[in-house]
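Onboarding guide, step 5: your first structure request.
Type a short instruction followed by the sequence, for example:

Predict the 3D structure of this protein.
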Amino acid sequence: MRIMLIFPPMRNTVKYFKEWHLSPSDYGAFPPLGLLYISTFLKKNMPDADITVIDCLAQNISYSELEERIITFNPDVVGISAFSVCLIDVLKVARLAKSINKNTHICIGGPHLFIYPKQTLQFPEVDSIVIGEGEYVFFELIKQIREGNLTGGVDGLYLKSDLKNKDFKKAKMVDIDNLPFFDIDFVERKFYYSAVGRHRNVITLLSSRGCPYSCTFCDVPYKVYRGRKIESILEEIKLRLNQGFKEIFFYDDTFNVNPQRVIDLSLQIIKHNLKFEWSFRGRVNSVTFEMLKIAKEAGCTRIHFGIETSTDEGLRQLKKGITIEQIEKVLAWCCQLKITTIADFIIGLPFEQSREDIIGNINRLIKFGPDFGMFNVLQPIPGSEIYESGIKRGIIDPKKWEDFVRSPYIDFKPPLWTEYLPEDELVALYYFAYRKFYIRPRCILNKLCSLATITELRRTLRGGAKILFKY
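The system replies with structure tokens like these:
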């Protein structure tokens, strides 16, 4: 069996507004963990299979180059990772593989399938889909194909013959402690980095899966939190350090669901004298000063916090489960301990009824004092509570997304929340937020004084140039 797993090029990615200037390189490039876990699981359980992973995004692989690689490898099965915003490219890759060999089995997986499984399976170039965590399910697909007995019959795996079914169940959650550490050698590690990282090469690591919170703008499909054993995480850290990585980004949906778990891991890092820098995505309501202090001693240099808005009423409406008091306290602690903070912030929320409301929220965020601000205009995601609320209130037309996923087209523009402010004003406020946050003498001086490496300096200068000349 020859199996090719592809993260598609993002040449035709949906833009929420035409003036959007950010590119994937502005955020960094991280290994495609879903494909790497699947390929590693296959390699362990089917050692005679020939498996390759192609990350077109990170390596900037063109369609002509991808075509050459498919011809050379001649796969029996092609698995493609799908996000809704890159559906055009997903289908373009599927059609390309089919045009080379009509007998190649095309399987689509990824977040898009949680919301639109039937619509995806209806495309003639798609032979099967996987909904949810794919390690065991994709292995079952390959096993059935190899044995010449492709019948499906597994939760999360659906074939063309299942189109008549009304109930598409997601895959059963896997025991993540039983999964092998993903094999980074399936891809070329030199292409991966973080836009806010201190070192040239950054590796991502998952210490858990799932998120137990219910933020209204989020569509995380697994609401059950599953943390790996500390011993397992520690062994993987050692592996990555032996592979030459100096910085690790814990890419969990929420790393610090339990602050004691962060303390326990940090103490083990210190005990084993592991020297590296690390960061994570977390929540302010699950932070203690003790946790931050010990994490800092263990090498934690940066935390990404979802702040989203700047009032308690706004946070309540978003079901964030955090308060302004917690935000201010935790950011002050991080400043005291010299841990860099990045605040994710959303503008154009349903309760922001005027330009003044949004500017007020931006100004209050600046007063909170995070080191970085990451701004987004609210993008109601199909499957999220805000999206469903917008449909009920007549603010969002569900046909826009539904028509797109059935027949994708280049000029598709997803709906924003325009109940009070039109799109062009939301876009202008988005640019205003970046300029307001970053073009401040104090912000510039603090950032320059905190630079630790030449790599960090280069990325800071590149990001600054984009703010000055594009925003």
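Each response can be followed by summary notes, for example: The mean pLDDT is 91.
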